User: What shape does this take?
Amino acid sequence: MSPTVNSSADASSITSPSSSSESTLTNATRDGFGGRPIYLDMQATTPTDPRVLDKMLPFYTGLYGNPHSSTHSYGWETEAEVDKARAHIANVIKADPKEIIFTSGATESNNMALKGVAHFYGKTKRHIITTQTEHKCVLDTARHLQDEGFSVTYLPVDAMGMVSLAELEAAIRKDTCLVSVMAVNNEIGVIQPLAEIGKICRKHKVFFHTDAAQAFGKIEIDVNACNIDLMSISSHKIYGPKGMGACFVRRRPRVRLDALVNGGGQERGLRSGTLAPPLIAGFGEAARLMTEEFETDNAHIKRLSAKLTSALLEIPETTLNGSSVHRHAGCVNISFAYVEGESLLMALKDIALSSGSACTSASLEPSYVLHALGKDDALAHSSIRFGIGRFTTEEEMDYVIKAIKERVEFLREMSPLWEMVQEGIDLNSIEWSGH
Amino acid sequence: MSAVSLYKNLLATAAKFDNYNFRSYFVRRINETYAANRTVTDAAELNAIFTKANLDANTLNRQASISQMYTAEKLVVEKLT
Assistant: This one.
């Protein structure tokens, strides 16, 4: 007997097709079609791969042992699975499994790396270097360290979003303990030159941390070839479960950290607390799949990304933000001049998109990343980020291209600014009167 | 089981996913993998491919059932039947 087979989940957006009238997503746009939006926000999070869920389920049904219980088989069996997962994750970045420390996600890993190194070496080394386009959690952690008396250099980026190696090298001081530069930017998808940065850091004996939440498994990274000492990794950006991540901490030459979380001394004493085998097994399987599917995923994503990018750039007055060469194809950030990004998003209820980072999109502030690239407020406000992943389909891409083209045109037709531009009026020459 | 019937079985299982994106993905990957392995003749290699495909078939079966238990509204690109 299987009593639960037909129970449908009652989370508001997950309903059975027949009882979907309560959902806020039921604005069917075309007769005879469904109403749930196309998901194109892969930088915010990715869908959990069914193969990952399949790996996790046994840990919620029978394998519940504490992996730290060394006296019985319940502990041994989950410990063995944790070790397998750790090896899969290490393999993606060519690290030793012992160098992988499990955390709750990339935000914790970033906190752990920056605060950990700063606090351990803080007696003699009081300076940290990072960039203006980092994720909020790196910038906010750096601010906290400034409050504690550390000095922080925020390196600018060029119009393509790239860090200057010369400026980075010039910024290194005698008391610099850490350089933190993200691998792939979460808003514009730009890839920083990790190998070159690593070389400079090693030459000056400064630790190199990279936030690889958006990069892990999606671009090739070898922590040894790139001289990376610390790396933040997230599980839910690679089709794994949320609430899970890792920090790579190099053993040779050894990087020493002050732990954020103290307790039973798990994870080499760097992150105490009982591990979560279901999440770790899911994370490990997600990492294994990233390796196994690396080529087919990348080919698929590149193909869809090229199609989307070229079609959208055909619309007049549109620009691709960030370098078109050094980028992860799965992240396409485009500015539609004379269209307000939030209005476009409102007009695109059938596509789940974001104008930037999920963390700041609630505030309606223009993106600080686009500001750092030298974009003005207006252009920063008119930008949309498209995230493409393993599960995105060609059919969805065609729908999105058509929808964006139609609605940009529609919004521009309503815009007095667009009308003036069409008449050849230079908008900068207008003196707006305030009220 | 012959390669063709294993391939057809896998496709039929993938088609059972209620979730549009998962269904499309697995159908695409099964087709790609089958096309890529069609010319393999080495016995050991074939054996490995079959073993993996059978494991994948089990996973796919379980997950297709789960996808049918917890369904979501159809996407805007999906025709309602």
In short: Chain A has two domains: 52-289, 294-422. The first strand of chain A starts at residue 38 and ends at 39.
